[in-house]
Amino acid sequence: MIRTRRFRLIGALSVLAQSMLLISCNPQTENSAVLWTNQDSFASYVELFNTSQNKHTIILEYKANPAEAILTSKEQPDIVIGPWLKGEKTRTKLVSVDYLFDELKISGKLFYKPLLDLGHINGRQYLLPVSFNLPAVIFSPEHRELIPGDFSLSIEQIREIGKTWNQKNDKTYTRMGFSPRWNPDFLYLTAKLFDARFEESNTLFTYNAQALETGLNWIRSWSTEVNESIQAEDDFAFKYLYDPPYKLVTGSRNLFSYMSSEDLLAMPQDKLQNIDFRWITKNNMTPINDEIMYAAICRKAQNTEAAEAFLTWFFTERTQKELLERSRNLGEMERSFGISGGFSALRSVNEKVFPLFYPSILGHLPPAESLAVPRILPNNWIMLKEKIVMPWLVDAAGTPAQHSNTVKSMEARLVDWQKTR
Description:
- With 421 residues, the chain is an alpha+beta fold.
- The protein is 40% helix and 17% strand.
- The protein has 18 helices and 19 strands.
- Strands 1-3-2-4-17-7-18 form a seven-stranded mixed beta sheet.
- The chain starts with a strand and ends with a helix.
């Protein structure tokens, strides 16, 4: 079920308090535009826009899945912001925003090119990237001498360095560098790094089966060649891996833990200062997490002028600096990282502004040319990944290669899932 909330925002109350106390159903006027999003941070952004000028008003409505909402609802917003907007069906509800570049209202040069290109479909720009996140490994600064480079670590380096960390007491591991099997998200990340190519299709999604099997065999070899066996990894995890990731590395039980940037950089400063981190790469490329936030103007928008005004205002370095200052003043940085829960899609904001608010990223920003975007995914990808992809990866990675035929194939699971829908 799609949930809807309409916000009328005032004063300097927290975003959470605003959403709880000030829900209303104010009618849209000729000077207002409706924005649908699943990003709570936009409650604060909209309020700042509304109070910064007196010509236009943005009315915010919360949708748990904006991409699904514009496909299933009779009413349509003026602006939609959220993930999964790139799908074939969703795009039919949007209009090209090339004219915003042509009229110099927004500069395409501000954006990370791979992110902007992902929203450029059939020769037209439908989507403007808002924010994104990256996969990282964290470790204790006490062991920095083991870690090469300043920006990133390849999965091959994580494997080899982790191997040197392993330590046994008799036949039992008391330290283990890392295992991909400790975190299903890392298993999925590895599949992406090996070019599994998950992508929207008429059969829900497709993937590169051969690349997926290559990545899976590499994970299995990690278990057997680095950590001795799948059972040894499971025994170590059962005995020790019950603390949060940062505690595991600061306690030197394992060398690395996996975290995504939105969780890592939203941690309190007193915890961040006790860890270091690197972005995860393969072949010098860091895959951007799937859930990229995009903004678009809807085909049935009632007030495109107000929609354009908001997007033109939002996509500037000056505005996003103000938004970060506002988030800090309202205490929102304690709960959410950056712009709309991630790095800004505007390169200059990350390079010039973010270090003022997030000192830990100084010397840690990944090179822009190293960022790799996912393929176009269906708007229910979170559910498909949770119900089909991740369970299959966990089962397959936990089964020795010689018994892999005992694991039901992902294709069979996909067929089974379709039968229940």
